[in-house]
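Researcher: Structure prediction, please.
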Amino acid sequence: MKLHALVAAAAVTLALALPAHAQTVRWAAQNDILTMDPHSQNHATTNTVLAHAYEGLTRYSATYEIEPSLATKWTFISPTQVRFELRKGVKFHDGSPFTADDVVFSFGRIKQPQGTMGIYVTGINEVKKIDSHTVDLILAAPSPILLRNLAYFFIMSKGWAEKNKSANVQDYKAKEENFASRNVNGTGAFRVTGWQPEQRVTMTANPAWWDKTGGNVKEVIYTPIKSDPTRVAALLSGDVDLLTDIPTQDVARLRSEKKLKVMEGPEVRTIFLVMDVGSPELKYSSVKGKNPFADKRVRQALNMSIDRTAIQRNIMRGLSVPAGILVAPGVNGHTADLDTPPKVDTEAAKKLLAEAGYPNGFEVRFSCPNNRYVNDEEVCQAIVAMWARIGVKAQLAAENFATYSQKFQNFDTSLYMLGWGVATYDAQYAIQSLIRTRTSGADGNFNFGRISDPVVDKLNDEMKAEPDVTKRNVMIRQALLRIKDEALVIPLHHQVRPWAMKTNVTTLHRSNDNPHMRFTTVK
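Model: Predicted structure follows.
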């Protein structure tokens, strides 16, 4: 065994060797958090873990309805001015009081361009302090999904951040560190007590939390375990209580284990491919002086040569839904008639490539994570083989998501895989983040493919401010159809997520793949 493999195995062994106490949940999944800075990275695992400690003005209930959190009430003074009454008596984990100053500070911080969380305050021009526990949100225009966005507008302590020289958001893509990227001070149900990257995150229940949980968990040990066999072995041996990344090939086996139970449900996450469509010349390609991905025919050829059904059957073991659009069932804007992938047609794909000037195909680097999505590297390997049939030679470069994400955020890719969970359960979140032309604000803040389509931009900007639900849903449909017809990205599939746990653990399966220990009980 190579040295790095021995070190990784030793790290997992160390993490799992921590003793279990009463009402402790040892939770494992395949990838680590990226940072502890709550405004730095819009990354699902990071947000899931940090949501135990940091809170927004609103939050999602067990049934995905918006309910009060750090705000107890909101009143629309006008369509563009909303008054929020803040919860009194709330304290941060360091004992300092939560006030309106923290909300104003957090708004200024989350908007800083080096972070990728600005989508959650999109459309807000200003947060104005009225008194110590009242703020007004001044909007650029009416915002139909304002309350849903605010659930992930995590509030930081102004005093703590300034004291610890963390008033600025960590620039993750530049490999910057600050105090807030390694330490946590929220108001939430759990205190983060430590993080050893690629080994574990530890949390303990916050006895001073303003609310009461529906569960009884006192301690959480989160362990990232990249290796599929090691993750499953840890659950079977009893070293792990809850596993939220089950290898597809092991689901049936785990269902048959009497000491375990498996919960399954759809996830509002779509896996897709992003092409650099906007650069004058494509990086890491055999084509010089131009960009093949700028040609719609090339994008269509790549799209129609992927056999999603074969991927679903052979790699995902049925735990995926072949995708034709960028959002999954359960997201507002999704319709079954739109969500139909193209039929596999190798000959038609070859013809399109020839018409575009690539009769013999071309070479390109294909970047892929190997520890983030279900069977991510295996799916990428299958796509490489499928593209080879039309002459496109994709050179696969697979790596850990922590370094992988730094590369694509620095526009250092030609073609890469991404998964996008729709935190707001509304398609605008995906369209605005991923497809809208990139600006200095929330628009296009995760558009690292240099996509710029005026039709989508116009529809996106209109839907952001359209209060009429019917009219707005028409705009969403038109935008999703345009993205599909132009092949601006290549949707692969929507994930189905089984979780496995010991029989003494009860938790709420959530379609945002966001387990929360306030919904968890250990007997």
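Model: Residues 1-11 have pLDDT under 50 and may be disordered.
Researcher: Thanks, that helps.
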